[in-house]
Amino acid sequence: MPTRIAIQGGSLSVSVDDWDLLGRARPDNAVVGSFWLDRYEVTERGWAECAHAGKCSARDYGEAGLPVSSISAEAAAGYCAFRAGRLPTLAEWLWAARGADGRRYPWGSFGLVCRRAVFGLQSGPCGEAGVSPDVPGSRPDGASPEGVEDLAGNVAEWVVTQSPNSYAAAGGSFVSRVAAELKSSGTEELKGPRVDVGFRCAYDH
Length: 205
Fold this sequence. Notes:
This protein is of the alpha+beta class. The protein has helices at residues 44-52, 73-82, 90-98, and strands spanning 4-7, 10-14, 28-32, 35-38, 156-160, 167-170, 187-188, 197-198, 202-204. It is built from three helices and nine strands, in the order E-E-E-E-H-H-H-E-E-E-E-E. A four-stranded mixed beta sheet has the order 7-6-5-8, with no helix packed on it. A three-stranded antiparallel beta sheet has the order 1-4-9, with no helix packed on it. A two-stranded antiparallel sheet has the order 2-3. Strand 5 (156-160) and strand 6 form a beta hairpin. The two termini are 19 Å apart.
C-alpha cells in the first residue's frame, strides 16, 4: 500500500454554509496544483528516525506507532524537509479533505460516527478518559476517496496559511466532541504545540 497519495489539483471553493463553522472556517477560492500527501499522520517512530539522523530534536518518545504530537509547526516543517517534503498549505489540505464536491467530511457529507473518525475519546461520545490518539489508519471507513486516512480526528494537523511563517491546525482530534471541529472546512488558530496536534507532509508533484 503506498504511503503517499497523489492528489490531483483543481479549483477549491470554500463557503461557510454550516452555522457551526462560523469563526472556524475561512471562505476561500484558490486554484490548487497537483501534489502528493502522506497517507498517514507522522508517527513517533518517524520522528525518532529524524532525531537519530540529527535533523529533529530528541524528545520523550511515546508509543512508536502513534501519531507524534506536542510538536511546533516550525519543528514539523523541519521534519517534512528531512523527508524532502513540506507542510501542506491550508488550500491543499482543504482540497484533500473536501475535494471538488465540497465534502463536509473527508469521506462524504454525512455519517460522523465512531467507526469513521477517532474523536470524542476523552469525554464521549466514542470513549471516556482517553489520553492519546489511535494508530493511524485505524478507521479506514473514514478515508478520503483517494485513500488519505485520518483527515478528520486522531490528531489535528499543522498547515501553512498565508505565509511560510503562519500556521493553523485542521481536522480536529481525539478530544474533539462537536461536529464543527471535525468538518473538512474547519481550522483553528494556535499559538504553539498541543498534545492533540500533529501533522503529515506534502510533496511537490
